[in-house]
Amino acid sequence: MTTPTPPPARPARGRRRAPSRMERAAGRAAALQRPRVLLALLLLLALTCVMLLDGYLRAEVGGDERVRTGASAGDVPDDVLDGGPILTFPGGRATTVSVPDKTIVLTFDDGPDPTWTPQVLEILDTYDVPGTFFLVGSMVSRHPDIVRNMVEQGNEVGVHTFTHVDLSYQSTARVTREIEQTQLALAGAAGITTTLFRAPYSSETDAIDDYSWPVYESLGADGYTSVFVDTDSDDWKRPGVSKIVEWATPEDGEGASVLFHDAGGERSQTIEALPKYIEKMKAKGYTFTTVSGAMAEQQSTQPQQSPQPQEPQESQPAQQSGGGLQAAHHRATGATLYEGKALIAAVAVAEWTVPALSAGLVVVGVAVMGRFAMMLVLARRHHRKRNRRRFGWGPPVTGPVSVIVPAYNEKECIEATLRSLARGTHPVEIIVVDDGSTDGTAEIAESLGLPGVRVVRQANAGKPAALNNGVRHARYDIVVMMDGDTVFEPDTVRHLVQPFADPSVGAVAGNAKVGNRRTLIGAWQHIEYVMGFNLDRRMYDLLRCMPTIPGAIGAFRREAVLQVGGMSDDTLAEDTDLTIALHRAGWRVVYEEHARAWTEAPASLGQLWSQRYRWSYGTMQALWKHRRSLTDKGPSGRFGRVGMPLVVLFQVVTPVFAPLIDVFTVYSMLFVDFRAALLAWLAVLGVQVVCAAYAFRLDREKYRYLLMMPLQQLAYRQMMYLVLIHSCVTALTGGRLRWQKLKRTGEVGTPAGSG
Question: Which is catalytic among the residues 54, 109, 113, 485?
Fold first, then answer.
């Protein structure tokens, strides 16, 4: 035992103590990490916005599917109810316009649709017939090319709201939003805005009631022309081609505004009926025009009629001419044009991202479920195999071993750690490597007077250097490494070293357990340790590709450690780095479930973030450092052939995408089917609970902690996702961190029971 050194002198009164090297390094590291954390959060926010936009395009949150019927129309002027199908408000007075005799205005609702609208446009182009399309804004933003072709072909377009809702139920703000968003979509898709409007579920003027009338008045005051029909093909009922043609035909000689649909369902009958209808009406001497064309023709015969209403959007004047803009169209300029293009671009991103993520989710779901199945099968085999032969590695290992305890400012925990080792049933020497502690850790270790304890002091150099120093001071061929905040059970070391009876074994992983599990965060980590870490280690043990010996409890042949150059400070995960190096050197790495260590898990979210970030980023560093293991040959290449792909898949790729299960559950609840989405999420949770329950059974843990699993999935897993994203961002942008010291409370004393 070395002679205690006096504590550092207290700084003079009134003088501020200069920060230590560790403190300065920690400050620099924190400054470097803040932008990366922000970038990780921005990535999550961007993904959330993309999914919300995609969902909004399909059905607004809380989508309103109500359709008003049977309401009174006492406030609606009689000449509106009995007038023509075109409603304008020149000078603020409601005026209706009829379609001239022998004239057909072909109107189409609910598009554009990528399947049916192009076919309609082809038919109209073939017969040189214009159409007026009342478009749903969400569909415009998803299929801008169709709208652009539609306008370039000489057709007219109008607003049919953005999400196809009954406006009579909506607030003024919602009505305004429905119209403005559709105009932006038209501006982005075709560079125009329009003055034409048709409300969903209100194709004929007799559908106007006291609830919807204020909407038409308000839109009329803003310059909109509301377009209805007086002849309905009812093609949405799919009554047959002949019926569609018959119902779309007006009385002989009368003009008509005729309704067809180019979207909203299966429209093959419409596609078949439309050419027959056009040929029939042309044979009767009818001409086809747009809404603007019908209004212009009426104005030419009635010069006293008031001029067209003002345009509703910032625009340039349109002119009625061949190949030019329709009279109802206005060229979008300024903010309207750029906002529209931004909307189309955002929708294009959403249209690509969400399907890609959906496909990725399917792959991840299959991988996750396959992993669960593999973990259960292999964990059961591992448990039965190890418990059947217990210490069947060879002759019992009874010789003394060296236990290395790296310590930096562990005054709260070091006494419990050392006393637990002193109570062990296996002979040990205990080497405490004090890594420049400033809180008297070394003095506490020496003052205990425990037999076999040596304290080795070194200037602060980090955990890998402390462990390497301990290995150099070790007297025995087997070294056990543990953290300064961990306590062992009396038989832990004895169990841990038995596999070394097999000369091919170079390292043994122990069973780390959460000692401070009474808090919510501790309980979550307890579930993670039992289910994730230990089931994984059983699986990797049987596959002979164990990726990590935990820093809290692991044993090594001193010869093997020295052969691979000891602990490296190239990565933040020195334990993973060393484990992979041992595999590549031809040593076997195994798991001993009966060797239990009780460690103090982080008690706050900030501390947990710091720890998991170090683990996650360090694992990525170690995998990259040993990437050439993929091409290693022979028995030493097993980790590269089996372990490396599994670790990349299960510890990097699937954890990044696994939270999408929750994200898509929320997405589906809001925009698809609430009940089905909830049942699917509960089914996945049920599979996880089954795996966790089996893991708890193998470790003889109490099941009551499983009650925390639903909340863990909703909160804890999302945090781990952010940590992993943070790590990925750091890996892509570059960066290093020193050995980070977590704040400890020392509440994990003598090993508690498993409950």
Answer: 109
Note the pTM of the prediction, 2 decimals. 0.66
Strands 225-227 and 428-435: unpaired
Place of tokens 């106007």: 208
DSSP conformational letter for 12: P
Judge whether residue 321 has pLDDT over 80.
no
Q: Determine which one of 143, 160, 164, 261 is catalytic.
A: 261
Q: What is the DSSP letter of 483?
A: -
Residues 6 or more apart whose Cβ sits within 8 Å of residue 704: none
User: Does 261 participate in catalysis according to the annotation?
Assistant: yes
209 is catalytic: no
Interhelix angle 334-389/674-698, nearest 10 degrees: 30
- Bridge-based pairing state of the strands 86-88 and 95-97: antiparallel
The 3-class secondary structure across 579-622, one letter per residue, is HHHHHHCCCEEEEEEEEEEEECCCCCHHHHHHHHHHHHHHHHHH
Whose tokens are 């609970």? That residue is 689
Residue from 14, 316, 104, 296 nearest 192 by CA: 316
Query: Which residues, other chains included, contact 615 with Cβ-Cβ below 8 Å and sequence gap of 6+?
Result: 572, 573
- For 428, the 3-state DSSP assignment is strand
- Which band of pLDDT confidence, cut at 50, 70 and 90, is reported for residue 146? very high
The residues, any chain, with a CB within 8 Å of residue 451's CB and separated by 6 or more, are 422
Q: What is the CA radius of gyration of the chain?
A: 37
Backbone angles phi, psi at 232, to 5 degrees: -115, 125
